[in-house]
């Protein structure tokens, strides 16, 4: 299939969160329900957003790590789907946040299925915890095998330690400081304050960041995302079908990448490999991108992506951020919902949903009629980016990425 | 010290990794190499990513390396390490194999002075009567 033929032929028709009376935003530390319930809540919400009968869903793509979610067969059955044409269960984490959408779009583009549900659902805090990544082997066992025999034996476990190495090397080589990371964290939080879904909504200062406890140096608490119970879902269909549904479609211009980041050094992101190809496939230039939602399990990750896409040189993202370029009225608004760090951690998938809302112009905020797409642009209330037409979503370390476009 | 007395985690070797740990007991750092093309790799694997050969060899390193990156852990999910915080974990590139990164701990050094590029020397810690764990010391020239 040529990139030109694929371009803008599929679309995201609806999005949904696992909202409930107890957790109106959908994100929580303890959902109180099983993961299937979370997934189906989000799926039904996405159908409702699109104006689609859930029984019409005829395909699904999901991703999970540590067997922490529910597979497509269960979710499709729970939706009452009668004619399943496509189902994919990806084993992986944040590397698949954008890729899952690409896969669904390919299934639709080739006519294998018409309405593909994409979801990530997990009880990431009350159930199987991401922060204990690599620690399972230590639960009372004295000896560890596999690759852990070369890592856990030195006390290595958990995402903050595993990714802290990347941040430390990036910081040491390019003169980036913890205060520089704090500037990124503060920008994200200032957006989260205006996001009713966000778990972290109290104001944050550079000093607050610096005084927060160290998790794994160089990461302070406010450099890290938090384990979350949540499900996010969307419906991918053809652009033609999407136009016949309720919401303004968001077109999938291009997507690229898979589960791996083959880079020479750990401070690199895979955008050095796929960034130029992605732009060419979407037929957009870097400066055409109005919104950037990069995977931010930790603050340095999107900073490195901004550099590797070419918005600035290595080590200069810190200045880019201090100059206000990623703020809501800057030229590259980023983490417009507060990112994974503040809204909550749906393993990157909530960043895709946020990009969709920005392009539809219905970002959920404190404006009285946000749901009607009416925004005040008063930055005390409003986190909608003005006239956003094109968005870039990038998965962890650039492992996969998509460009989305307003119809 | 007996295995039971050792507070932390110990390696469980398998047929592919056993020679690495056997060498550590002799106070040698060895890396697996392709028995055909000689490409070094770590962790040990059954097939060469370069040429596809399944022949396995081992090469002895000098034990000198460079600090590639590091973290200092203040909060750990590993129950057995909780009493040890804060502690460092380093990634080290052996001098003879700059593309390979080994995890380890730097001993007898102030964690706040760790930085990318420090010269390191392997330190063989006979942790139990059965296990030697490879850690690292900062080379004298860099202290």
Structural class call of chain B reads: mainly beta
The count of strands of chain A amounts to 12
Instruction: Please identify the top-level CATH class of the largest domain in chain B.
Output: Mainly Beta
Count of beta strands of chain B? 9
Give the DSSP E fraction of chain B (strand runs of 2 or more residues).
25-35%
Counted up, domains of chain B total: 2
Estimated helix fraction of chain A: 25-40%
CATH class of the domain at 3-129 and 227-243 in chain A: Alpha Beta
**How much is the average pLDDT of chain A?**
95
CATH architecture of the largest domain in chain B: Beta Barrel
Which residues of chain B sit in consecutive blocks of at least 5 with pLDDT less than 50? none
Please sum up the structure shown:
In chain A, 31% of the residues lie in helices and 17% in strands.
Verbal overview:
Chain A is α/β, with parallel strands linked by helices and 407 residues long. Chain A has a domain at 3-129 and 227-243: Thiolase/Chalcone synthase (Peroxisomal Thiolase, Chain A, domain 1), CATH 3.40.47. In chain A, 31% of the residues lie in helices and 17% in strands. Chain A has helices at 3-6, 35-50, 72-79, 99-109, 159-174, 178-192, 206-211, 239-243, 271-282, 300-309, 317-322, 339-342, 349-360; strands at residues 10-17, 59-64, 86-91, 116-123, 143-144, 214-217, 219-220, 229-238, 250-257, 291-294, 390-394, 400-406. Chain A has a nine-stranded mixed sheet, with helices on both faces. Chain A has a two-stranded antiparallel sheet with strand order 6-7. In chain A, a hairpin with a 1-residue loop joins strand 6 (214-217) and strand 7. In chain A, helix 2 (35-50) crosses helix 3 (72-79). Chain A starts with a helix and ends with a strand. The relative contact order of chain A is 0.18. The mean pLDDT of chain A is 95. Chain B is mostly beta strands. Chain B has two domains: 13-60, no CATH class; 62-143, OB fold (Dihydrolipoamide Acetyltransferase, E2P), CATH 2.40.50. Chain B is 6% helix and 34% strand. In chain B, the strands form two sheets. Chain B has a five-stranded antiparallel sheet with strand order 7-6-5-8-9. A three-stranded antiparallel sheet of chain B has the order 3-2-4, with helices on one face. Chain B is globular, with a radius of gyration of 16 Å. The interface between A and B is large, with 43 and 42 residues. Strand 6 of chain A pairs antiparallel with strand 5 of chain B, so a sheet runs across the interface.
């Amino acid at each position: 299939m040529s990139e030109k033929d694929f371009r803008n032929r599929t679309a995201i028709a609806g999005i949904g969160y696992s909202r409930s009376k107890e957790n109106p935003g959908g994100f929580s530390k303890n959902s109180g329900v099983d993961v299937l319930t979370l997934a189906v809540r989000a799926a039904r919400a996405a159908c409702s957003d699109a104006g689609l009968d859930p029984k019409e869903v005829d395909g699904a793509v999901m991703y999970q790590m540590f067997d922490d979610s529910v597979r497509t067969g269960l979710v499709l059955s729970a939706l009452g789907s009668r004619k399943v044409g496509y189902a994919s269960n990806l084993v992986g984490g944040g590397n698949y946040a954008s890729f899952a959408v690409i896969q669904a779009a390919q299934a639709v583009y080739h006519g294998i299925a018409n309405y593909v549900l994409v979801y990530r659902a997990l009880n990431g805090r009350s159930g199987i915890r991401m922060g204990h990544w690599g620690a399972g082997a230590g639960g009372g066992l004295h000896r560890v095998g596999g690759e852990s025999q070369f890592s856990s034996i030195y006390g290595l476990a958990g995402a903050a330690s595993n990714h802290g190495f990347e941040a430390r090397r990036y910081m040491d080589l390019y003169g980036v400081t913890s205060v520089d990371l704090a500037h990124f964290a503060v920008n994200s939080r200032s957006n989260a304050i205006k996001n009713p879904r966000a778990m972290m909504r109290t104001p944050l200062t550079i000093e607050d960041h610096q005084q927060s406890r160290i998790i794994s140096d160089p990461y302070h608490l406010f450099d890290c995302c938090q384990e979350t119970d949540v499900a996010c879902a969307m419906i991918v269909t053809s652009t033609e079908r999407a136009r016949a549904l309720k919401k303004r479609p968001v077109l999938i211009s291009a997507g690229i990448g898979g589960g791996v980041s083959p880079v020479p050094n750990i401070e690199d992101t895979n955008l050095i490999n796929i960034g130029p190809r992605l732009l060419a496939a979407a037929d957009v230039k870097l400066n055409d991108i109005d919104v950037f939602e990069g995977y931010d399990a930790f603050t340095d990750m999107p900073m490195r992506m901004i550099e590797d896409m070419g918005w600035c040189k290595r080590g200069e993202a810190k200045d880019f951020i201090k100059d206000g370029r990623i703020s809501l009225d800057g030229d590259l608004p980023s983490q417009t919902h507060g990112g994974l760090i503040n809204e909550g951690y749906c393993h990157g998938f909530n960043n895709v949903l946020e990009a969709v809302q920005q392009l539809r112009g219905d970002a959920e905020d404190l404006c009285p009629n946000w749901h009607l797409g009416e925004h005040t642009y008063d930055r005390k209330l409003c986190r909608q980016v003005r006239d956003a037409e094109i968005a870039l979503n990038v998965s962890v370390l650039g492992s996969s990425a998509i460009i989305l476009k307003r119809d | 010290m007996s295995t039971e007395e050792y507070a932390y985690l110990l390696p469980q070797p398998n047929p592919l990794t056993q020679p690495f740990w056997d060498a550590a007991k002799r106070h040698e750092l060895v890396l697996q190499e392709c028995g055909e093309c000689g490409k070094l790799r770590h962790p040990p694997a059954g097939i060469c990513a370069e040429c596809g050969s399944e022949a396995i060899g081992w090469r002895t390193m000098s034990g000198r390396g460079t600090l590639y990156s590091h973290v200092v852990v203040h909060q750990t999910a590993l129950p057995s390490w909780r009493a040890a915080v804060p502690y460092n974990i380093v990634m080290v590139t052996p001098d003879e194999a700059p593309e390979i990164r080994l995890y380890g701990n730097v001993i007898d050094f102030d964690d706040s002075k760790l930085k990318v590029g420090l010269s390191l020397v392997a330190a063989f810690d006979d942790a139990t009567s059965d296990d030697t764990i490879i850690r690292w010391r900062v080379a004298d020239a860099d202290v």
